[in-house]
Write a structure and sequence with these properties.
Helix content is 41%, strand content 13%. It is an alpha+beta fold. Strand 8 and strand 9 form a beta hairpin.
């Protein structure tokens, strides 16, 4: 990402009041967003009376109260910050891809329906191909933007697999996913889910929200917001969708599983 995009997140970071400094973190984003006692003493000296490694009980209680309050405040502020980041990423991704591959022009319906080959050698419509490009840009943007506002509390495209006996969904490592993508193990990926963005407590099992980017091809021809992907080729209006799968997998309510769409923003 260039310097221009990095500075774009500064206004989000300041607007939600999420102060603090963060170093480089691995791309797993599974760290706990808590400070050590010594770090708290350096940043909140009023809470420490002795050497930073020793804290009297009353002071320790104050620190615990402070950290608990900050955690609660972050949750309320983080939702606004997260959705601001994701909405901007969706808009920027569509604009960037259209500028790169379509001279910034809106494709016609005929162009959207043209068949092209994707990077895997598959024949797909131009609409699907453009959507894949937009997704790639949006996910990279989201990784950078969310790291600025909720470090350690999100994952990009994690894969979860249901346990055979309990049905509980547990995260797979990147190494496990790559191994299971081999032809002889593909059956092991049956039933897995991989949302675009998962918001969690720092523990990937404790999921609080799921966001999926949805893109459209022709702006002029798109009258309504793209919906959730159906689970079958010939779905009925009452048939479960991708949203229902996420709700069931993570035990989430409808308002916790959301679409992010250019023009429309964040929708259920």
């Amino acid at each position: 990402m260039g310097l221009g995009r990095r500075t774009d997140w500064l206004w989000v970071f300041v607007a939600v009041g999420l102060g603090g400094c963060a170093g480089q973190r691995p791309r797993t984003y599974a760290q706990q967003g808590m400070d050590s006692v010594s770090n708290t003493c350096r940043t909140q000296p009023a809470l420490c009376t002795g050497p930073e490694s020793v804290m009297p009980v009353p002071r320790a209680a104050q620190v615990a109260t402070l950290m608990a309050g900050a955690k609660l405040a972050l949750d309320a502020e983080a939702k606004r910050a997260v959705e601001s980041v994701l909405k901007k990423c969706a808009e920027d991704a569509r604009s960037e891809v259209m500028l790169r591959y379509h001279d910034g022009k809106d494709p016609t319906v005929e162009q959207c329906n043209e068949l092209v080959r994707n990077a895997r050698g598959e024949t797909v419509s131009r609409a699907i191909w453009l959507g894949e490009q937009m997704h790639a840009v949006a996910l990279a943007c989201a990784a950078e933007g969310l790291e600025a506002v909720i470090p350690g509390r999100f994952s990009i495209e994690p894969t979860y697999r249901p346990a055979q006996r309990t049905g509980t969904f547990t995260p797979l490592s990147n190494e496990e996913v790559e191994l299971l993508k081999q032809p002889r193990f593909l059956y092991e990926l049956k039933g897995t889910v991989s949302p675009d963005v998962v918001i969690h407590s720092g523990d990937l099992i404790r999921v609080s929200a799921v966001y999926d980017f949805k893109f459209f091809c022709s702006n002029a021809a798109t009258k309504g917001a793209p919906g959730w992907r159906p689970l079958s080729k010939n779905p009925s209006p009452t048939e479960p969708t991708q949203k229902n799968t996420y709700m069931d997998a993570f035990n989430l309510a409808p308002g916790q599983v959301l679409r992010v769409i250019p023009r429309w923003g964040v929708l259920e």
